[in-house]
Amino acid sequence: MEILSQSRRKFITTLTLLLTSGGLLARFLTPRMNVRRRVLASAPAADVPPGGALLFRAERVALMRDDSGLYALSLICTHLGCTVVVTEDALSCPCHGSRFDRQGNVLSGPADRGLERLKVEIRGERVEVLG
Ligand code: FES
Asked: Do 55 and 90 lie in a common domain?
């Protein structure tokens, strides 16, 4: 009878450990569904000039428009984090001279990664940049 009791206890302990670790593993591996992005910048879509950019200096965000529509770039240089300057045909970093095209791709280093492209949502007549 005692052998049966020990066996049952061992089974229940093992089952409890498996369920607990399985639950923790599932929670760790499952992406969070309610990740809410915050609005970094917002403006009337009509304020973004064709072929131009609307800058949000404090947020270090550029809202750009080209033939394919609206998009947003982070103005944080991927080299060491300086704020990138937007010119008519490119974006350039004043710190070490990295240059990026208007899509945020690297034209010249030392930055080796393009600028981060931020999510844009159109809400009525306004456009929001989400971070
Ligand atoms: S921080 Fe921009 S090039 Fe170095």
From this structure: yes
